[in-house]
Amino acid sequence: MPLALRVVQSLSEAAGILAADSRTTLLSGGTLVMRDVNEGRLTDGTLLRVTDPAWRQIQVSGTRIELGAGATMAAILASRELGFLHAAARAVGGPAIRNMATIGGNLFAAAPYGDFAVALLALDAQVMVLAGYGSPRAVPIEEFLAGRSRGEARLVASVQFNRPVAPGDFRFLKVSRVKPKGLSVLSIAAHLPGHASRIGQARVAYGAMGPLPVRARGVERALEGKALDANGIAAARAAALEGVQPVTDAIASDWYRREVLPVHLGRLLANQS
Q: Is residue 171 within 8 Å of residue 190, measured between CB atoms?
């Protein structure tokens, strides 16, 4: 049966359809799904489009931020309040792609894509998911990504997280061979509370250093209670490769990724990226 297109108005209805029919694929911005269609990897079933306006809303309430899963990278870049996320949003393709690529779609992008998901992991985001008819429930992003790797079918309604206290608390770096829109050799996101004095409860995440975005827990432990001086950065660099499983692909070898990761982590922490 050829591909069909179905349009629904509510997220709840869309979630119910996705839960009931494994041959239905959600069509968000289309930057990933339509590539599969055009290249012949997705040839039958149903493409599901959601028109619910709430799916594309961006809400900032005090320190709490909620990004609708259908919000685009271009919408992130248009928001002054989300300036700390601009580098991560700008890392997703060129202007035409950013006009289409969505927050939710990026959460499902396989390495070396998915740079924005790396930023959300460093920000300890909660992913609001619908597994069928009913209300969304909050799932920690690490749990969500692990479920994604197991093929769990859940519709993402939004992501929520707290705004960094100070502008310099959050940093993001993408390393690619082709500027400005090349695929990632690697990406690094770091939330560094207390960066002006002593780091406490840092969260550091990598992209393209494994099949999924991954926490750099060794780096987080190395930074705890330290200043971002030469000694603190040296300790973080020494722990940079703990837990990483980079692959060799058309962009870079696993050896190259391991070699350059500590260098770029040091530059990010020194705010030289």
A: yes
Q: Where are the domains of the chain?
A: 4-50, 53-162, 170-269
Quick check: helix, strand or coil at residue 69? coil
Tell me the C-alpha distance between 235 and 59, whole Å: 38
Q: 170 near 84, Cβ under 8 Å?
A: yes
| Residue 153: per-residue pLDDT | 63
Distances 146 to 34, 112, 120, 214 between C-alpha atoms, Å: 24, 17, 14, 10
**φ/ψ (deg, to 5) at 5:** -115, 130
Q: Nearest 5°: CA angle at 32, between 153 and 50? A: 60
Q: Is the pTM of this model over 0.85?
A: yes
Q: Among the listed ranges 6-15, 34-43, 118-127, 129-138, which one has the minimum average pLDDT value?
A: 129-138
Instruction: Identify the bridge partners of residue 35 per DSSP, sorted by sequence position.
Output: none
**What does the pLDDT look like over 56-76, one tens digit per residue?**
999 999 899 999 999 999 999
In angstroms, rounded to a whole number, what is the distance separating the alpha carbons of residues 142 and 121?
7
Q: How far apart are CA 86 and CA 189, in angstroms?
A: 12
Helices (H), 69-205: 73-77, 86-90, 95-98, 103-107, 115-122, 141-149
CATH of domain 170-269: 3.30.390.50
Question: What does CATH list as the number for 53-162?
Answer: 3.30.465.10
Q: pLDDT tens across 39-58, in order?
A: 999 989 999 999 999 999 99
